[in-house]
Amino acid sequence: MTKPRIYSGMQPSSGSLHLGNFVGALTHWRQLQEEGDAFFSIVDLHALTSIQDPKVLRQQVRTLAAQYIAGGIDPQSSCLYVQSHVSAHAEMAWLLSIITGFGEASRMTQFKDKTAKKGIEAANVGLFTYPILMAGDILLYDTNLVPVGADQKQHVELTRDLGERFNKRYGETFTIPQPRIAAETARIMDLQDPTRKMSKSAETDKGIVWLLDEPSRTLKKIKSAVTDTDGSIRVDAENKPGVTNLLGILSAFTGRTTAELADEYDGQGYGVFKVAVADAVIGELAPIRERTLELLDDPAELDRILEANAARAREVADATLHRAMRAMGLR
Ligand code: TYM
Fold first, then answer.
1. CB of 9 closer than 6 A to ligand 1?
2. Which residue among 152, 195, 198 has the greatest number of ligand 1 atoms within 8 angstroms of its CB, and so is best to mutate?
3. For residues 33 and 223, what is the distance between their CA atoms, to the nearest angstrom?
4. How far apart are CA 114 and CA 117, in angstroms?
């Protein structure tokens, strides 16, 4: 049996990954790369929708590459590359935009969330067509599985719809992908506002654990996580979102179920519980932080890895792009 093709990506839109990206995506990627033929991209074309400074973007691309590798992605066996190095992505987005309904694109909740504050008039068109570019990313690689957090589910569903529509209209061209979303870590919440997902676009970063935060800062952020006054430690997302989120995080870092952990820590008080969460998080993240900083000391080597992998990605992506173009009557 051939191995499943795995595809996923993250935006280089901040100076570091956060705990949500790590637990919701990266930990699953590194597991899946063992079972499949994996492509992991740094989606810099997507990040252009929010970053205007070229120096910042370039630096963040390298930082993200270093974090992928330090976090366990093996750039020898998995294809770790930068989206803009493969021109087929931009071309495929155009082809797919032709079969995407305006109303369909308007229903994407991330677009609605991202434009809620400043209004639709202030948004760029790229932010609107963003999910189409993402659909192209996935379809270009004949992807079977897309490991992502819950916030990307709707985009993967759009990808499936577009792939099926294209196949129906122009003949079998694309593999139809499945999202792979791990229930317990699908949505890590902000430590200061556990009713909102942890997100780089939050107003303050007090509730965000960055993978490049110093361990002492991580400890402080977790100790000050917002909980409640009832004192018990149990899973109850509605009434105890803070405690439930911390249980989810501890579960992700220990491999134990939230129910088991709730049993163990209930009655010990929030202070003890939070220190246990911080210890588990820091125990895993501190070496990743150090390795990232080491890798960033040698940017030429990072660039070399990214360039070599881009050549491999181009081969696969160009073949699919040309297939789609021919199906549509181009070329
Ligand atoms: P991005 O860069 O916002 O997030 C990267 C990954 O992290 C997951 N994630 C979370 N998981 C759990 N809890 C959270 N609080 C949390 N925040 C983020 C996301 O679900 C994602 O898996 N559009 C995508 C990038 C993209 C992509 C793709 C992904 C572009 N092309 C093709 C997969 C396949 C995005 O903005 O992810």
1. yes
2. 152
3. 34
4. 7
Can you tell me which residue has the tokens 């960033």?
296
Per-residue 3-state assignment (H helix, E strand, C coil) for 302-317: HHHHHHHHHHHHHHHH
Residue type, 165: R
**Token pair 């911080």 in the structure block, residue:** 278
**C-alpha 148 – ligand 1 centre gap (Å):** 6
The per-residue pLDDT for range 216-233, each reduced to its tens digit, is 999 999 999 999 999 999
Which are the catalytic amino acids? Answer: 114, 197, 200
Closest CA to 140 of 181, 90, 104, 179: 90
Write the CA distances from 23 to 137, 172, 206, 232, 287, integer angstroms.
22, 35, 18, 25, 16
For 112, phi and psi rounded to 5 degrees?
A: -65, -45
C-alpha 252/C-alpha 314 separation (Å) is 34
* Residue 84 is assigned to a ligand binding site: no
Is 150 known as a binding-site position? yes
pTM (two decimals):
0.96
User: Are the C-beta atoms of 90 and 51 separated by less than 8 Å?
Assistant: no
Query: What pLDDT, in 10s, does the model give residues 63-121?
Result: 999 999 999 999 999 999 999 999 999 999 999 999 999 999 999 998 888 888 888 88
Whole-angstrom Cα distance, residue 221 to residue 194? Answer: 13
232 has binding-site annotation: no
